[in-house]
Amino acid sequence: MHATPSSTPSTTLTFTTEQPLDDGVLERRFTLNDVPGILWTPPSATPSAPAPLILLGQPGGLGMDRMYPRLVGRARHAASAGIATVALEGPGNGDRPPLPGADQARADLRTTLAAGEPVPDDLVDRLVLPLVDQAAPEWQAALDALLALPGIAGPVGYSGGLIALGVRLALVEPRIVAAGLFAGSYVPRATFKEARRVTIPVHVLLQWDDEGNDRQAALDLFDALGSTEKTLQANLGGHTGVPAFAGDDAGRFFVRHLR
Amino acid sequence: MHATPSSTPSTTLTFTTEQPLDDGVLERRFTLNDVPGILWTPPSATPSAPAPLILLGQPGGLGMDRMYPRLVGRARHAASAGIATVALEGPGNGDRPPLPGADQARADLRTTLAAGEPVPDDLVDRLVLPLVDQAAPEWQAALDALLALPGIAGPVGYSGGLIALGVRLALVEPRIVAAGLFAGSYVPRATFKEARRVTIPVHVLLQWDDEGNDRQAALDLFDALGSTEKTLQANLGGHTGVPAFAGDDAGRFFVRHLR
Predict the structure, then answer these.
(1) CA distance B194 to chain A (A)
(2) Which of A32, B9, B168, B250 matches a 20 to 30 Å C-alpha distance to A57?
(3) Which residues lie closer than 8 Å to A125 by C-beta, 6 or more apart?
(4) What is the rounded CA–CA span in Å between residue B170 and residue B160?
(5) Is A8 helix (H, G, I), strand (E, B) or coil?
């Protein structure tokens, strides 16, 4: 347990636990001010050979503990290519205080879905945008602190399921040079507009038979992205059934752009 | 130059030229009855360790000689994974006699496109189906002959740009266990119906910004495929600008299913 002063005066990064995994990956839990997070670094990362970093985004509503098995799997996969990864508890997730309006928005979503009605744009905005507006600067503050650590350096990638957050970060955070987006969340209208201004390489993963996901919205979002290198990969297997080969392809996308 | 009796009495496979390429790949031109073709075998292929085989389909209207640079590139790529490849001159292509009705269908297509009108279904049928109906049994006869050669064995894959031919072969030819389809040709209505009955793994490559291709038809075709393992990969780069990494991903698809 030790504290490292961060590069911005208002942010304090405090490591709370440190655990080596069996494959030599170092897992460290931390808090960034009051936001919990987990950092995984590959055994190859040293101060003289620092690792690139991937931000592991999570869907809204699911806390980091519930997502841990999938997060650590992705962390080990990246570490095998010499890449560090980090997860942050999202605003309103886990033990963090609820976001204003989030409970009401989720209740409205349940009512809408139970009635078999389409989810209106303004409800998507209420569900997603407050989360993105708060999470994006938290991730940027995390980057400030983590890139100051020995053994971690850029370039940085974003990989995750909250498409609106990935698009926002791809747009506003110049240290992020590549984004892997998992299509499986509601996409606010503003995100389509932001997507047109994204220029970094993007890899979009879509589960074609994911009944809870709006396939056309994912295709429209892919079409809107302004990047000259963008890849859409669609597979079967349902929301959580991304085939192993698709994970490998996504991993190679990050290796191409981060190593 | 030598002749090999084929496994069906009516088919004669005659090798006409034999040329080792600089990377050890053996390129042999042949005729199968009156159909010219090219066979590429990797240096690793021996009678005791025979290679799998990929059929390299070509778009209608472009002869094998004009396609040679791209074909040999794909052949070398497959050979580097120990896989043999074969190209056949399509019906009506190169020096082969024109298909009945093909000139009229192409003239009608030019008129339709010049008028800025959508291509009607019956014209797509006239453009594509006669080619598929003749090419599919030719490919099957080629398989009979080629799989009888020392150094070549199954399993067999189909990889190519004439989607209707790939779907037909995937449906009627049980020796084909995996198909890579390049979306860039007109898709007849009958092909959508056949696609629903396809069950082998399929990898569909779509150039998202290919202005001459009907993107929605490609998405509908992917949706229609009955396979439980199917992947759609879409990229930018125009009709002929498939990124190298996408070719590598397609190559890994065949290695997964043929090796």
Answers:
(1) 19
(2) B250
(3) A188, A189, A190
(4) 12
(5) coil
Single out the residue of B49, B28, B48 nearest to residue B39, CA to CA.
B28
Interchain proximity A208–B235, CB inside 8 Å: no
Q: Determine contact: B233 vs chain A, CB below 8 A.
A: yes
Cβ–Cβ below 8 Å for A233 and B233: yes
Distance (Å) from the alpha carbon of A215 to chain B's nearest alpha carbon:
11
Which among B242, B249, B257 is the top mutation candidate for probing chain A, defined by the most A β-carbons within 10 Å of its own β-carbon?
A: B249
Backbone phi and psi for residue B65, each to the nearest 5 degrees, phi listed first? -65, -40
In Å, how far from its chain's centre is CA B77? 15
Do the domain assignments include residue A127?
no
pLDDT tens across the length of chain B (259 residues): 444 444 445 789 999 999 999 889 999 999 999 999 999 999 999 999 999 999 999 766 678 988 999 999 999 999 999 999 999 999 999 999 999 999 999 999 999 999 999 999 999 999 999 999 999 999 999 999 999 999 999 899 999 988 999 999 999 999 999 999 999 889 999 999 999 999 999 999 999 999 888 999 999 999 999 999 999 999 999 988 999 999 999 999 999 999 8
Give residues with Cβ within 8 angstroms of A238, minimum separation 6: A207, A209, A210, A211
The answer as to whether A111 is a domain residue is: no
Yes or no: say if A78 and A180 are a contact pair by the CB < 8 Å rule: no
In a domain, A128, yes or no: no
Q: How far apart are CA A168 and CA A139, in angstroms?
A: 11
**ipTM (interface pTM):** 0.88
- Nearest beta carbon to residue B236 from set A230, A253, A256: A230
Tell me the CATH number at B207: 3.40.50.1820
Q: Is the peptide bond before B43 cis (omega within 30 degrees of 0)?
A: no
Token pair for residue B34?
């009156």
* Best mutation target, B199, B202, B233, to test chain A (most A CBs within 10 A): B233
Bridge partners for B27 per DSSP: B19, B40
Comparing CB atoms, the residue among A229, A246, A256 nearest residue B236 is A229
Range of the domain at B24: 3-99+125-258
A254 touches chain B (CB under 8 A): no
Q: What is the pTM assigned to this prediction? A: 0.91
Phi, psi of A28 (to 5 degrees): -125, 125
The CA-based dihedral angle spanning residues A201, A193, A161, B201, taken in that order and rounded to the nearest 10 degrees: -60
Q: How many domains does chain B have?
A: 1
**Helix and strand numbers, DSSP H then E, in chain A:** 7, 10
CB contact under 8 A, B230 and A229: no
Residue A206 lies in a domain: yes
